[in-house]
Specification:
The protein contains eleven helices and eleven strands. By secondary structure, it is of the alpha/beta class. Helix 5 packs across helix 7. The structure holds manganese (II) ion. The site of manganese (II) ion (MN) has 6 residues, from loops.
Length: 319
Amino acid sequence: MRSGSLEVFYLADNVYVVGHKSPDTDSVASAISYANLKNQLGLPEIFVPAAAGEINNETRFVLEHFNVPVPEVLTDAKGKKIILVDHNEVAQAVDNINEAELMEVVDHHKIGDIQTGSPIFFHNEPVGCAASIISAMYDQNKVVISKEIAGVMMSAILSDTVLFKSPTCTEKDKVEVAKLAKICGEDPQEYGIAMLSAKSDISSKTARDIVKGDYKHFDFAGTKAGVGQIEVMDLAALVDRREAILADMEEVRKEEGLDFVLIMLTDVMKEASDLLFVGSPAEKFEQAFEGKIENQSIYKEGVLSRKKQVVPPLEAAFK
Ligand SMILES: [Mn+2]
């Protein structure tokens, strides 16, 4: 029997709002909150929030705390209508993004390599979090923010800016958190530390979970790399896992055919990162971070942001 045309009609009208692979809290929160906003604008489509993979511990904490359902997992964009949030690079997007109908992008990263056949709404701002842009869009569209959505967006901003400590944090991020805190009724500092602690709980994580938990692919002038980050309240928690993490990084490098894998072990309280490196060229890594590799890493005070403090020096070194 042919399936009913009604079903086909509804499928055709679904627009998936999705963040990057290895989703972090911003990718998931921005998908949820942007889909929620779009669904209130009286448009004909149904906007469905999705995650491009399993959500992490921190995001689980956030969704449970504010009683928001976990979005469905979307792994293949082929033939679907898609809005990208929190990224605009093909390598970070769900599979077959070039065979999707891309409707919009809302992001806060450097402009990547996403291409479209027709004009789209492309909203990018150099702020600390995609959810800050979306939070402001609610006001621009005069849509009231619910307590749940406010909590989810505030969590994303606190996560991406590491409680405002990251150099990526802007005035807009702080303004939006102040607004959202009033709506969701949580104190940003107190709640933020509880949320980051959930992320820092690595006791149940395997080395692979740590390496791939927040992990992105980059191409530095033909040199293929994986760059990941794990944030903890105290690096001491990772000391006895270091060897296993390095061994797994080498496994990942081979499996994915990469030149190097770099994992940032970030101490949120000390505001520093131990940059673990496997692969080559080591001299470019040393050049980028102005140091000598010791025990397969370079320790950098003040480095918290992959986007602002790790990717740009690597790009410069490979130029
Ligand atoms: Mn983000």
